[in-house]
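Handover notes (outgoing to incoming on-call)

Open items:
1. beta-N-acetylhexosaminidase: sequence verified, structure written out, both below. Nothing else pending on this one.
2. Nothing else urgent.
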Amino acid sequence: MGRVSTTPRRVAAVLVAVTMLLASGCSQHGQRPGSAPASGSTSPSAPAAPDPSPSATPDDPATRAAALVAELGDEDLVGQVLMPYAYGDRATQVSAGSAAGNRALAGVDTPTEMIEKYRLGGLILVGFSADDPTQGNQPTTNVDNPKQVRELTTGLREAAGKLAAGAAPLLIGTDQEYGVVTRVTEGVTLLPSALAAGAAGDPALTEAAWRAAGTELAAMGINVDFAPVADVLVTRSAVIGSRSFGADPQRAGQQVGGAVRGLQAAGVAATVKHFPGHGHSADDSHQDLPVLSQSRKKLAAQAWPPFTAGVEAGALAVMSAHLDVRAVDPGVPATFSYKLLTEVLRGELGFQGVVVTDGMNMPPARRWGPGEAAVRALKAGNDLILMPPNVSQAYDGLLAALRDGSLPRARLVEAVTRVLTMKFSLAGAPTPELSTLATPAHRAAARALAAAAVTVLRGRCDEVAIRGPVTVTSSDGRAHTRAALTEALTEAGVRVVPNGGTIVHLVGYGDRAGDLRADAAVTVAMDLPYVLGQAKSPTLLATYSSSRASMEALADVLAGKATPPGRSPVKVSGLPATTCAG
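beta-N-acetylhexosaminidase structure tokens:
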């Protein structure tokens, strides 16, 4: 599958041309743009750009998008900017409970009917795991195993292909960040967390691992990943945590660029998130509206470099966040802020791709009804409305606002053109076979990244290896991870016993000082490493991840087969970034 890309200047140029052409389109029900005089006003967010490039060809994604937009009626335009979730794990047949959920959400029974009725531009597949900080706005699950996902996405895409915009493939996205936010967990190659990649500090390893991950997503029919996380972890944020590449904006930016290039080389759109930087607040936007009190200068220096790196790497999408940035637009969530999305993200950072909202079913976005919220988000500069809490109301609100002029036609046309440009950028590449999932090459890429992340924060590098039998213990609820490490240690030649051996104690997501073990010879942090600052063990290690690849890498270190090369990407009180040289 080939790399996907767009030329930002060409996209901007085409947007200006098509916006000027279609701003005068008729807003009457059922009519095509251009068939009657204008009633909409010019969008304030239309980018200033020169005339379309003479080098543009009919096959250019932006040119194809402009041509298709010219054929779409009002209802089609509105549908293309909506990307809701749906209940059910199949496209056309769902359980009674899922049908009831879809009726409450959108007045239909199945995901296919939702696509057909609202002429949707995309659909997000949702679900959550036990340690997932985003589970509060994941009301259902669409994923079970790769075969089921492939069948679901095939059915969804067949339904979308019958729409007026069907020439452009349906966007099917999910949050496959790896680490605590991972929607598809069975039968796929699981990468170590972003924080582990930050500890490894090698963008080439990150790119290779994310290319493998992108290939597997594409094989399941997923063409948009709402990843990587570009938030710089300057606070002890539980909601961002190990989803971040670390506390250094430049080093995090290098990792973001690697992840973007890897995903898009596999034909999957990367989505850099959560702009303007969720790592600068410890509060959780799944519960309330976090406040960023930093100065604009500090945000520009500390929060925005990874987003710039993602833009420069060619990211096709950026996700806006429900954050109150007091230095830029006080009291207005960034999702609804023209100043942040249009003036800063587009004007200063130069992003010309698709801006997608964070989940509109989250509390900060629900201060308005679904229709008004969708209109406000579009007018601020978003192009895709993600997870509206009621699809019918969001759709009707956008259509009404388009027709009464409160949503400028030019702004909607601009948004749809961007969405279709991204779709055409993703079109045409073959879908890999499911046999590409979890191949030795993919597992090796994940293992290489995990091995480079293992960090010694206390103890000598040449004394980490354990002589004699090992007893693996952990905080509660981690039997699966203990078993994975036990298996990996055994394969590495280390004898594991139920008790009486050298104690290796594992701590993970959400663990605190009370979850430590005083008699452990080795304590290992499998998520944020902050808790190690309170551990008494003579040897402290961090993998930042509990993936199988990370447990295999840890086993090699404990068996003396590898020296841990990682450096902690966040500061741990009283401990160095590593005790190893170099």
